[in-house]
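Lest this sound abstract, we let one protein speak, letters for residues, whole numbers for local backbone shapes, and leave readers to judge:
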Amino acid sequence: MKGISKRTTKLGFNVLRLHFSADADKDPTTEKGKRWLEDAKKGMSDVRWRQEYEIEYDALSGTLVFPGFDESVHMVEPIRLDPNEWTTYQGADPHSRTEHAFVYLKVNRSGEMVIPWSYWPDGVNEERANNHESRLTVKDYGELLKIIEEDNSFNLKPWYRVMDVAAKNFNADEARSIFDAYRDEGFVFYPAKRNIGYVGYDAIAEALKPKPFTVGNEEKAKPTLTIFAGCGDNDELAYQLKTLRYREWKGNVADKDAPEEPEQRRRHLVDCLSYIVLSDPVLIDRSAPKATFQPIYPALGY
């Protein structure tokens, strides 16, 4: 029968494989199926489509997470952005051993997103250890963030800050979490949404896709997300976006799905960015009247 097949595992178990083409309404050889296919593939990369819908178990193995990233398209010259037209968000990715990473993102009323600044002092703790110095502390990071945010060049004071929820399990000292430690330094972070199934990465990939727009009689395209070149560690962020790959599968893919997780190394700034996009950043209109109520429970919003 069309769209239905069988594979047999090494242990002799028969596994039924059901392809979407088994449904007559989804058969891509028909007009109705073609329309369904075009709509279903929207917002999904080709490689993930092949894995999820074409039953290609190893489709993601070793592939780039962001194949659409292009420095010539996504890296732009920095410009001054009107703080009334752009709202700033910050994402943080702290670790117990690796240096903490930070990304600032601005968004306007059209949903366009710009990364004006990022920071990840890779290798600093190792260098400090070689000099018999202690590791960077939350206080050290806080002092640096204050310097960055007090510089009016990019108006980086965030409206909202999010941090990897795992930081609740990291102790800045024996008495408090990293969330508490940053709060004591004047930085209130909220727990980021969990990047389950790496949906945050999918959202980044979608924002990197050039979208068509019209200027007069001319058709053009530009991505939703761009990055200021040469600012902070933005070039490192670009490198991570350009090189991050899914783990390569070296087993028998006929018996087991390939791993769907990216490589663990050198992705901290990308994780920061994913926490921000998962928070659904929007422009906050500062010209609108401010609410007069004060929530009793700020974390819950009421």
Notes: The first strand starts at residue 4 and ends at 8. The mean pLDDT is 83. The longest helix spans residues 138-150. The chain has two domains: 4-40, 71-278.
